[in-house]
Structures are given as structure tokens and as C-alpha cells.
Amino acid sequence: MELTVYLAGQIHDNWRSELKNKAKQMELPIHFVGPMENHDRSDNIGQEIKGEQPSAIFKDEAASEINNLRTQVLLNKSDVVIALFGENYKQWNSAMDAGTAIALQKPLILIRPESLHHPLKEIANKAQVVVETEEQALKALSYIFETN
Amino acid sequence: MELTVYLAGQIHDNWRSELKNKAKQMELPIHFVGPMENHDRSDNIGQEIKGEQPSAIFKDEAASEINNLRTQVLLNKSDVVIALFGENYKQWNSAMDAGTAIALQKPLILIRPESLHHPLKEIANKAQVVVETEEQALKALSYIFETN
Amino acid sequence: MELTVYLAGQIHDNWRSELKNKAKQMELPIHFVGPMENHDRSDNIGQEIKGEQPSAIFKDEAASEINNLRTQVLLNKSDVVIALFGENYKQWNSAMDAGTAIALQKPLILIRPESLHHPLKEIANKAQVVVETEEQALKALSYIFETN
Amino acid sequence: MELTVYLAGQIHDNWRSELKNKAKQMELPIHFVGPMENHDRSDNIGQEIKGEQPSAIFKDEAASEINNLRTQVLLNKSDVVIALFGENYKQWNSAMDAGTAIALQKPLILIRPESLHHPLKEIANKAQVVVETEEQALKALSYIFETN
Amino acid sequence: MELTVYLAGQIHDNWRSELKNKAKQMELPIHFVGPMENHDRSDNIGQEIKGEQPSAIFKDEAASEINNLRTQVLLNKSDVVIALFGENYKQWNSAMDAGTAIALQKPLILIRPESLHHPLKEIANKAQVVVETEEQALKALSYIFETN
Amino acid sequence: MELTVYLAGQIHDNWRSELKNKAKQMELPIHFVGPMENHDRSDNIGQEIKGEQPSAIFKDEAASEINNLRTQVLLNKSDVVIALFGENYKQWNSAMDAGTAIALQKPLILIRPESLHHPLKEIANKAQVVVETEEQALKALSYIFETN
Amino acid sequence: MELTVYLAGQIHDNWRSELKNKAKQMELPIHFVGPMENHDRSDNIGQEIKGEQPSAIFKDEAASEINNLRTQVLLNKSDVVIALFGENYKQWNSAMDAGTAIALQKPLILIRPESLHHPLKEIANKAQVVVETEEQALKALSYIFETN
Amino acid sequence: MELTVYLAGQIHDNWRSELKNKAKQMELPIHFVGPMENHDRSDNIGQEIKGEQPSAIFKDEAASEINNLRTQVLLNKSDVVIALFGENYKQWNSAMDAGTAIALQKPLILIRPESLHHPLKEIANKAQVVVETEEQALKALSYIFETN
Predict the structure, then answer these.
(1) For position H33, what pLDDT does the model report?
(2) Smaller CB count within 10 Å for chain H: N or C?
(3) Would you say residue E28 has pLDDT above 80?
(4) Which domain of life does this protein belong to (chains A, B, C, D, E, F, G, H) (predicted)?
């Protein structure tokens, strides 16, 4: 049995590649997917494909067309969603993805620093698992495959 | 025909009562519901019902149990969801509610200042309607009832 | 028992008001809903609510935001969808509404002139009932309420 | 990860084979499916299987039985739907397929010439991505597979 | 609380009116719906609405368009489905309605003479309740409303 | 707005009537439904309706046919499910009802003595709210209706 | 692409093995599944697994437990359902399977002799394809795989 | 065709490994999954991953977060659920899993000693198959794969 896990959350540091490396070391049969992590490419992809837009708002709208296509296709393919929240960004799309996953009855693992417990309390309550580090999230995933 | 509309979003100013007043003036047959707007009551409701909790995190978890009960019941009853985002708060629960509404195929009206277009671009793209003011949102709702 | 029936299709003549009048004469307990029939208002509603847009395409996109909000809310409330197709217009939104109704397992009544049978054959095959006149559609609806 | 993409839309030119060729050059792991593109075979398949029919309408009904079987099976298997609209045909079945895809929460990519923006505005608003060329649609699909 | 109950099954005797009379005597808050019980009207309704058809098969197809419209609308409105099977008729549409009700998670009450237990065993196993008389079915419905 | 709340759980004491009385005093617009609370009637209803059965197992099967009909109809009508677990009974049907409610995305309020926290930990984790007394459950329900 | 096709219908002659042989000759990538075709085994499987039952009715109930397990598992795995009806049997389970397939939005191919058109008219109207022979059904399935 | 079967129920003896061994001897193409069977690990997994908790209740809540993640992921992947109930344990989570499986339209096989027929009667009635031994459950699964 293999699992597909969508990695929602901020794209401003390399937490995904660290998590994937650790998963590889643990030999977990997991295929990780997620959003475009190249921030510039993510912001510009709309204009790159659809051409120049009349304003910053329309540039954003064009970019999010393509980014949401990617998210919807990959989220539909996933068995579990991990959402990581950090101190510095708004990450409203991550919270929306979390809500979508829950409504589709896909379990959510929330990773967040303890300092963010208050603003994330409603998402934490809806998440199946709440942890503080990527390592803890991987241990929870690893537990799914454990046999006696 | 009557509609039920859930008002997601920040609970730090009185935008909901202003919106409801305008809707009353426009004589729209809409029943508005939403989260607890008394911020202290919302934060303390868990301990008030479940008793003292061992830490701030568990106090938050207890509060969000009750707040999410309210949200889930009222969201299930709603035909449309309005989510308002402002400059000052994280509002991750509003973004999660938006994601839930969309996954349940309930149309979302997003109200946000133009200055927030970039961090809200993915939610804006998923929303059925994006506007900047409560008045615009009401005009969109009013249009549903218009006859020739 | 009352039914709500959505009247999809062209907004260029007064077929809806004729159909509603006949239904009133037949004393059918049906509440009819449908798109905005004032063509100019339908085309301009986006700019009226959201302000001037940078081009005709963006004006159309703004209008369809609001028009689709209306359609989604009213379609969700409906028990049956009637779609009327005529000779003169593209009516792609009517065909999309028909597809949506069918996927949501709401029965579709298709009204079309015999001359259009070829281009409408796939929709006709998916429709629960195919007729040529509004009167026939009303007879089919009336039959739902008949007792012996 | 592989994707299955349904190519809805007109069957009167060879846009599908061009799109598939480009996808092969781009080495995209996509399996394309779609309607019967041989127009005569599509129109006659009902009589070929079910025998002669009493009129042109019943011939069409017989053909659409078989064509819709094909569409429903392949659409159920698909992760994404592309719908291409051109200037010359009614393409109501493509619009119905678009509506079905959206109601089933499968993302839609709409390809259409700018000249058709007005009659397609409601479908464009429901589509996840709107572009003008097959190449742009493929770039959007390609973006789903991109890693950093 | 009121319930709507669909009465599937043969339309060749007056079991429905007897059942409704008993329910009225028991003062059950139940609204009963069901197919057209006038057999001739049921068989001819297609031609009455759609005009003369080219053969007996097409006459049947036209009639079942309208009959299935009625069934789908009323089944969607129902909380419980009762299906009665007797010795003399094929009643395949009743069995199809039973399968539809079960797949839609609406409970089925099967009424059948003991002599039919063998050919009805798979439906009996899927039914929530299996009885032999209309009176037993009404007692089961009555039990839903009982308080201590 | 009114809510319907299903009261799952043991039928061996009068917790439901106490809860309903308190709700009446609090003037909550809630319609409570639940299983047959007369234990003997619940055990015998199968034989009463279907006649004598060949063994105790078949008597139980007949009873549960009718009891599950009641549960399924009333659960489908409910907005919230409360499940109360006590020390003395197996209450496996209550746990099954809890699982059904959660899978149907209806929020669950679990009432249980602290002493049962260990065997109920998985249900507690799935429940939206976990409390120890009926009064606490009513406070949580009351909170849904509170306005500022 | 491979398809799984469930062969519902009578188990009293060898129509399934003939159909499978023809499909093999046509080299269709289809995996056929269906009910137990050994009639005695199908009738006795309940007692074989669960032990002797107190009456013919309970023997039938035990058998249908196991037969319906098989049907539900295989139907869930299927992309298309074929139901064949013949002159000689009641085949109510086939009609129930047809209703289930349609409600689950899986396309149904109905095979029936023309002589049965009247009692099967409602199922025929709900079926995606109606034919008279297994060969015609296979041609319809083959058409799904055809490329130009 | 392969099946995935989730083995719900008590984790206090080795019934699962016995069942898996017999399935291997019978050469059934079934992949069995289930909960963590190491009781201590199951109880402690929350603290192992999330750190020490403030009380036994919070330790249980932490453990069930992780255990329910495992269950939800594996249940979503399963075609059939087997639930075994024994004399000695409360097994409320097994009953909840049974309710979840049924609501998701996955067939349930219930294994229970005859002595437990009374408290399990509602689950037995909802189960597709009720047997007393693991061997009987395997025979029922084996029957799905049988060909003539």
C-alpha cells in the first residue's frame, strides 16, 4: 500500500524537501505532492501562460487560476493532507486547503509552532493530528504502516 | 423563498450588525447566521462549559470544540457563505470555513480590501463573487431575488 | 407538496412569463425561479456592483460572477430544471446548467423545436423529458401532482 | 503520478491530435480520452448497433445513447476536463460536459478564441482555467507536474 | 415532524388507497406519494403529451419519460419508500425504485406475500423492514412517531 | 431557526426526559428525537409486528429491523447527534449511531463520565464536543442560538 | 485503460460465458464480474457458511446475505453495469442492481428481447443503452475504446 | 482483482494473524489492514509523538488522534470491513468503525459469538453478513472470487 500526501502551507523555506528527505530515510512508501515552491514562478505563472494582465489584481487572479488547478488535481489524488503554518505569512490558501480536505473527509495533519495555538485553534480542532514539527508528522504517517 | 447566509470572518468590529441593518433596510428575505461575535465569550466558552483546562492550549482546544459545533451546524443550514477579511487579524478559521463552503458546493462571497488581493488570491479565485464592501455583497445577494 | 422549478435557457423573449401564466391558470403549486431576464441588466450587473472593468472580457467576467451566484443558489433550491433552446442564440450557459442539473440528479425537461434535434441530441438523451412546447412541459409537471 | 484528461469539444478539426502530439513532445504523463472524432461514425453509431430507426430524431437518439455511454465512462475516469469551443458549431454537448465536470468537482480548462468571450462568459467563470490555445492548456497541465 | 413516504409497486389494485385510509384512521402525520395509479393514463401519458409515436416501443419510451419524471421528483422528496410486490406482475420498475432508494440511503419497507420470498430474497435482504401486509408496514411507520 | 437533535445512547434511565425538561426551561428551539425508550417494547416490537420468530436471535433480528428503521429516519432528519454512554451497558448501537453521524458530517456531542474516558477515547476524538453532563451538552447547544 | 463491467441478470443459461468469449475474440480490455452463476451454490451458500436455518425463508435470507456481499463489492468496483432480462424469470434482484447502478451514476446497458419492452419500459428509460443482444452490448462497449 | 479488507475489533488476542494465515492458505487475493495490535503501543503512541500530556484523559486524546488517523486512512482504502466482537471488552471504537463503514456504503461482515446476539442486534441488522467465526468470514470473502 502506498499513500499520497499533499503538503499544504508556506512556500518560503525548504520544509518540504527536509520532510521528503527524512521520509526517504525512514523508507516510507509515500508519494508527496504539493504547490509550486518557487515563489516567483508561482506568482508569475498566470502571466506566463495567459499573457500580460491589466493590473496587479488581474495578474494575481491569472496566477491563482493555474495554482488552484494544480492544487485541486493533486488534492483529489491525496489520501492525507499536511498543512504547516509558520509565524511570518498569512497563508490563507493553506487554511482554505485545510478546510477543503476536511470537507472531503481526507484527514489533516496540522504542523504549527506552539506560539500559534490561539489563531489556529479552530483548524487544530478540525485536524486529525496536531504536532509542532515535521518529524512528528512523519512519525504519525509511519504509524499507519506499522505492523506488529 | 428565503435564504440563510453565514457571515464568516473577523469578529473584532461590528461589520455584521451594519450589514444586517442594511439588509433590513433593503427588505431582503435573508436570515443571517455566524460565529459568536463577543470575543471574550468565544475565547472562554470552552472553560465555561467544560471547566478549567490544564493550559492555554487546552483552553483554546475546549473553546474551539464549542465554536466549531456552532459553525458546523449553521454552515450546514446556509445557502451562501460571506467571508470578510481585514488587515489586522490572521482569520485562519475564516479561510478554513471558506474552503469548507466551497467543497460543499455552497457559493462564497469574499469581501476584502484591495490591499489584501495578493495573500487572498487563491480564495478569491475559488469564491463565486469578490467585492470590497458589505454593500456590494448585499447588492449581489439582492440580485438573486430580483424579478423583471 | 410544492415544487421549485428552475427555468434555464434564453432570456431574449418572454417564454418564462407565458409559462408562468399558464401554470397559474392550471393552479400548479410550483414556484418558478430563473436567471435575470433583463438582458442589459444581466450584462452590466458586474460593473454595476464591482465598478468599471479594464476590458470587455473583464466586464463579462464580472457579470458572470454575479449571474452564476444567482444560478447556483436557485439551482440548489430547485427540484426540477427546465431548459429551453431556440434557434437564434448560443445558449452555452443553458447547456452547462443542464449538465449541472443532471450531475446533481435533478431531473431535466428539455424544450426545443424539432429543427434543433441534431445539435441537442446528447442533451436530449440525458434529459428526463424532451418536448417542443412550454405547454407540454407544464403538462409533464402537472402529471406529478395528479391523483386518481 | 499519471493523469487522465478528457478532451471535450468540437470534433470537426484535428485539434485533439495536435494537442496529443505536443503533449508527447513535452513528455507529459497524461492519458488523453475523448469523444469519437469520426463525425460520420458518431452520427451513425446508433443505427449501426441498434438497427434502422423510424426517423432522423430517433436515429439521433440512438446515436446519442452510445455516444453518451462513451462520454460518461471516460469522464468518470478523468482527473481534468478540457473543453474547446470554436466559432462554427453549436457544441451544446461540450457545454453540458463542462457543467457535468464542474458539478463532479473535476477542474475544467476552457479553450476559446477571445471573440467568443461573451457567449461563454458563464462557463469561463466556472472553469478553473481559461485560455485561447491548446498550447496554453498544455502549459497549465505541465505545471501540475513541475518540481523545483 | 412529518414524513413523506413513496408507495412503489403494482398499480393494479387499490392497496394504496386502503393503506392511506388506515393511516388516516391511525392519525399518522404522513404524506403519501407514488406513481400514477390509473393504468391507462400511465401507459398513454407519453403520447398524450408528446404526440403519436412510431411504434409500441416508442410509445412506451415516451410514457416512461413522464412516469420516471414523476417518480424521480417524488422519490427525492421522500423519507421512506414502501415497495409492495404481488403474485401477478413483473414489477421491474418497483424493484428498480427499491434499488434507487437503498443507494440513496432512504430506508425501504418491503411488503410481499410469503410465497414470493424466494425471488425477492435479495431485495428483502437490502430492505430495512420486510412484512406481508400493509397493516404491518403502517405499524412500523407508526413506531417511528411513538413516544413513551 | 429550529434544530432537530437525535438522542442516542442507553434507554435504561430517564436521562432523555430530564434533558428535554431542562431544554424547555431554557426555551431552546430544539426538537428532540431518539430511539424507543420503553425497553420491553423495543425488544418485542419485531415479534409484535412480524409475528413469532423461530429463536431468540431471530426475535432480535426482527426487533432491530424496526428499531433501525426508526433510527435511520430520525437520524436523517437531525442536525446534531448527542450520544450518552454510561457505566452499565454495552451500548454498541449508540457507538454505531455515533459513527454513522460522523460519516454523514453531522456533529456529535458525546456525554460520558470521566471514568469511561479510556474505552471511549476514539469516539471522543471524533466527537465535536465531549462533556460529562446533559447540562453541559445543552449549554453547548444553547450557544449555537446565542446572539450578542 | 481497462474497464470493469458487472453482468447482472439471470443465471439460468450461459449468456455470460458466451459474452466473455466474444469479448476475448474482440480483444476488449474488459474485466467482467458478476453474481455466482451456479444456481444451487447461490441458493445454498447461506446454509453452507452459516449452518442450517429454521425455515426456507431464513435459508433464503442467509443466502442473500452472502450473494449481496458479492454483488455490493463487485458493483462498487465496476465502471459499467450490463443487465440482461429474459422471458422466464422474475429477476427482481437484477432490476434492483440496475436501480443501484443508476443511483451511483454508473451507466447501465440493458439487454432484453423486444417482447419485454412493456414491463421493462421504466428501466429502459433510465438505462444509458438499450439493446436486444449481447453482441450489441459488446459493440457499445467496444466503441468506448475506439480511436480514429 | 484484489480486495483490501479492514479488520476492526478487539486487539487483545491474535485473531487477526490467524485469519491472515488462513487467508494465505486459501490463496485469497486480499490485502488485510487494521489498527495497531500492540496494545501498549496503541495506548502510548500519542505521548510518544506529541510528548507528555497533562492527565490520563489528555494522554488518551493524544493517542486516539494518531490511532484515528491510521483508521481513517486505512478504512478509506478498504473495500470491505470485518468487525469482530468478543465477550470481554467494550470495543466502542469497533462499533463506531462499523457505523462509519455502513454510512460510506462499504459492506460490513460482523463476527460475534452467539452469546452476544442481543447487545449486537442493531449492528447485526446493518451488517451485510453475520457469522460466528473467522473461518466463516473468510468463506464469505472467498465466495466473491469464485467462478464457475
Answers:
(1) 98
(2) C
(3) yes
(4) Bacteria
Q: How far is CA B107 from the centre of its chain?
A: 13
Listing DSSP states for A52-115 in one string gives --SSHHHHHHHHHHHHHHHHHHHHHH-SEEEEE--SS---HHHHHHHHHHHHTT--EEEE--GG
Residues of G in contact with D74 (CB under 8 A): 144
Query: Which of A89-93, D62-66, F14-18, H9-13 shows the lowest mean pLDDT across its residues?
Result: H9-13
Query: Is residue H48 exposed (0-12), middle (13-18) or buried (19+ Cβ within 10 Å)?
Result: middle
Where is average pLDDT lowest: A94-98, D132-136, F11-15, G114-118? F11-15
Residue of G nearest to D63 (CA): G129
**Residues 6+ positions from F42 with CB-CB distance below 8 Å:** F11, F35, F36, F63, F67
Nearest CB neighbour to D61, from listed C67, C97, C125: C125
Give the C-alpha separation, D138 to B145, whole Å. 41
The CA distance from B33 to H72, in Å, is: 32
Q: Which of E4, E45, E73 sits opposite C3 (nearest CB)?
A: E73
Q: What is the pLDDT of residues B115-139, one digit of tens each?
A: 999 999 999 999 999 999 999 999 9
Is residue B58 within 8 A of residue B71, CB to CB? The reply is: no
- The CA distance from B60 to the nearest CA of chain D, in Å, is 34
F27: Cβ–Cβ under 8 A, 6 or more apart, which residues? none
| Chain A residues inside the 8 Å CB shell of H68 | 107, 128
CB-CB under 8 Å, F85 with H121: no
Whether residues C107 and E38 touch (CB distance < 8 A) is answered with no
* In CATH, E3-34+77-144 is 3.40.50.720: no
> How far apart (Å, rounded) are the C-alpha atoms in residues G69 and G48?
15
Closest approach of C139 to chain A, Cα-based (Å): 40
pLDDT at H131: 98
DSSP calls for C107-121: -EEEE--GGGTTTTH
Q: How far apart are the first and last CA of chain E?
A: 16
- Residue D106: strand, helix, or coil: coil
- For F24, the grid coordinates are 424547555
CB–CB of D122 and C90 under 8 A? no
CA distances in angstroms from B26 to A72, B148, F59, G133, listed in the order given: 38, 17, 61, 63
Helix (H, G, I), strand (E, B) or coil at G131: strand
**Contacting residues of E for C1, CB less than 8 Å apart:** 4, 31, 33, 77
Cα F82 from chain centre: 5
Q: Which of C107, C131, C146 is facing E73, going by the closest CB pair?
A: C107
